[in-house]
């Protein structure tokens, strides 16, 4: 990855007006409140950490790789000069990779701008592998996957995540949690269903309170999966159409009790089968002195016998 690293030139002071934003900065949203906090600090002590920049030979401006927030505050405070750490002009790939690696630990970034720059890197390098992209950018592989999910949504929904007003902005988590539901086979097979129509309905439900939290989409997916495994496809489609068509109808409308019970039964059966396998393979002599283990097994036998009696069942010899 050495070829993707920029070369250091040195630290110096330059005119604030001789700098310009980096067009490939994955961070394009700068909320006002955090800026005011930083601005107050700079007003007291100045810009302590030099901005990382390179000189654009065409425009003769210094382009910011790191420190755009500091530069914005310096301009608003009418500071004439700012300290910079100049590096050699990077290639396009070096530019994007450097931006990612400089900022990868900053958790206050919105994810959609990051996804857009990742998309540019994907197209430039023709690289789609999650692990390779993670290694290249320094992003966590899970973050790469989340970015790709956001990129699967049409541009007009991506723009909702880029609204300059934090109060109007739709969080990326909404679309990330929505993704598995939108991609579900049953949902996609519903007559008259389109992805755009469905997204619009979910945004409306989110505003009206039918979706209380973005994690409600996990329940939606769970209820659909339970219904499919229980052979209740027709019923879940009927309920799903009602759910998406009525903005204030809650997620619980999708729960089919018999399907949920079936899912619980499957999980319990899996646990019992695993326990049965462990006990069957157990070498008694190796555990002969483990009193806690034998006491627990005895209690388990008693619980099983009581449950069998309650269900009017008898253990087979």
How would you describe this structure to a colleague?
This protein is α/β, with parallel strands linked by helices. It has three domains: 2-151, Conserved hypothetical protein from pyrococcus furiosus pfu- 392566-001, ParB domain, CATH 3.90.1530; 171-259, no CATH class; 290-317. The chain has 14 helices and five strands. The protein has helices at residues 32-45, 68-76, 92-103, 111-125, 130-137, 141-151, 155-160, 172-182, 185-189, 195-208, 216-229, 233-245, 257-281, 291-310, and strands at residues 8-15, 19-20, 51-55, 62-66, 81-87. The chain has a five-stranded mixed beta sheet with strand order 1-5-3-4-2. A hairpin with a 6-residue loop joins strand 3 (51-55) and strand 4. Helix 4 packs across helix 6 (141-151). It starts with 7 loop residues before the first strand and ends in a 7-residue tail after the last helix.
Q: Which stretches of 5+ consecutive residues score pLDDT under 50?
A: none
Sheet-strand content, in percent, reads 5-15%
Tell me the count of domains.
3
Number of helices: 14
The CATH superfamily label of the largest domain reads Conserved hypothetical protein from pyrococcus furiosus pfu- 392566-001, ParB domain
| Structural classification | alpha/beta
Radius of gyration: 28 Å
């Amino acid at each position: 990855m050495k070829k993707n690293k920029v070369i250091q030139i040195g630290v110096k002071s330059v005119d604030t007006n001789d700098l310009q934003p980096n067009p490939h900065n994955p961070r394009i949203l700068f909320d006002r409140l955090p800026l005011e906090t930083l601005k107050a600090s700079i007003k007291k002590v100045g810009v302590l950490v030099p901005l990382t920049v390179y000189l654009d030979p065409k425009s003769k401006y210094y382009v910011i790789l790191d420190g755009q927030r500091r530069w914005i505050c310096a301009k608003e405070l009418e500071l004439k000069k700012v300290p910079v750490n100049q590096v050699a002009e990077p290639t396009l790939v070096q530019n994007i990779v450097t931006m990612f690696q400089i900022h990868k630990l900053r958790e206050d970034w919105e994810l959609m701008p990051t996804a857009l720059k990742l998309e540019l890197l994907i197209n430039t390098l023709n690289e789609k592998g999650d692990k390779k992209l993670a290694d290249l950018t320094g992003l966590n592989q899970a973050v790469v996957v989340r970015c790709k999910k956001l990129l699967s949504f049409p541009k007009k929904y991506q723009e909702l995540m880029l609204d300059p007003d934090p109060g109007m902005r739709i969080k990326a988590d909404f679309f990330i949690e929505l993704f598995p539901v939108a991609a579900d086979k049953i949902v996609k097979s519903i007559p008259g269903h389109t992805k755009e129509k469905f997204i619009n309905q979910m945004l409306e439900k989110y505003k009206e309170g039918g979706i209380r939290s973005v994690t409600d989409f996990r329940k939606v997916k769970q209820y659909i999966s339970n219904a499919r495994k229980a052979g209740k496809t027709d019923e879940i489609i009927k309920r799903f159409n009602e759910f998406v068509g009525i903005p204030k109808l809650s997620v619980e409308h999708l729960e089919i009790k018999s399907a949920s019970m079936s899912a619980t039964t499957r999980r319990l059966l899996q646990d019992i089968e695993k326990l049965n396998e462990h006990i069957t393979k157990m070498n008694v002599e190796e555990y002969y002195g483990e009193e806690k283990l034998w006491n627990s097994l005895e209690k388990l036998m008693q619980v099983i016998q009581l449950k069998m009696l309650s269900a009017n069942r008898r253990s087979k010899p």
